[in-house]
Amino acid sequence: MTGKDANTAMNYQRHEHKPDRPGARRARSRRRAVGLAGMTSLALTTSLGVGGAPAIGAVERAVTAADDRLGRPIRASTDNKDHEGKGGKDKGKGTPVRCGADALIAAITLANARGGAVLDLAEDCTYTLMGDIDDGAGLPAITTPITLNGGKHTTITRAAAADEFRILTVDAGGDLTLNHLTITGGQTTNAGTDGAGVFVDAGGTLTSSHSAITRNIAGGSGGGIANNGTTHIHASNVRHNTAASAAGGVASSGVLEISKSSIHANAAMDGGGVTSSGTVRIGHSRISSNRARGSGGGLFVMSGTGFVADSSVTANIAGDVVGGIIASVGVQMTIRSSVIAENVAEAGIVGGLGVDEDASVVVMDSIVKNNNGSGNGGGVYNIAELVLRNTKVFGNQSGDQGGGIYNEASATLTLFGAKVAKNIAVTDGGGIFNEVGGTVELNTATGTVVAKNRPNNCVNVTGCPD
Would you say the pTM of this structure is higher than 0.70? Predict the structure, then answer.
């Protein structure tokens, strides 16, 4: 049985996010069912044509080109403890805003009119918004540089009995900074309405620092944050958000940077934690316990580029395919000094890492362990080009073939100093299952080891021990 067999058939939903003004935004998503039976690819997305796998040199150049200086390496934790958002720089002295939604609305309105402001919100205060006042949001759209400084127990929320609206919109030219704040209760359950917590329009910028974006519900994509501009998430929590479409936590079509943060326990149809169709950079962060009813439990890089360093992607669940990370069609991606662990694909292929058509992925100094796929590929499923450098793949399990790694006929897998051990496949290829026509280069002279896998180490891999 190969990766083209009917037991790995799936349906996949792709979502695209294009900038619109709030109120006129509709979901730019489309669904296209793709059956794997009789096909030659994982078919995670279908918007681009199928091309041949790029040369290994192209992947190596992508690594060299990546700006990977995100700080000193740390050991990525696999627990689910959120970053608590303590510390941070001195917030500075701004204009006090008394506790009350009307006061906050007035302060933001005046700040926009005057070209920006730093606003110090009251501690131990919940600013409860009662209605949609600005094109789908409970607060005036941010159109200038505005900083909202919170403090101990400062929260902005939508009143439980109020009609549905998001909390904040950042329009083109707006630059919003959230310090020590909780944004919660936003709800945009009309189909196709994105960003229940914060919507960042094209040309807008959001910085969340030592803050929490939690328990927001979007009818479209981006339960916590929908970003069409530039978003920086630093020392913050994005947790327990929900989207009917893609990205329970953060949906981005622009530039997204996540550092020292936690993306935890979010849920969506596809891409439970984060989706990106632009540029995403993640450092010293955790993506954990997110759930996708369809594909991509943790991180779904739909297009563009991705970079993950010193981070963990753990305990995420996909109802269909790829519990941990998807690098989709044409994506250029680097994963460095990170852990992909204990992710699950409940009814489909690949628990940990999925590399789609025409994608180039390099994984360096990392660990792929204890992932589980009900179909082929417990740890990794590759149909394009994948390089593993000084990376361990162990303790993974597949319900069919390729307990550690499944490599399709169109794919190239190259290992340097890698270890593939103690993985289990129910039928064949406990360590590596390579379809006829696929290329696997072990490079054993560099220290690559394939050992102690069950029921065997490899299928169709030259130089692999029995």
Answer: yes
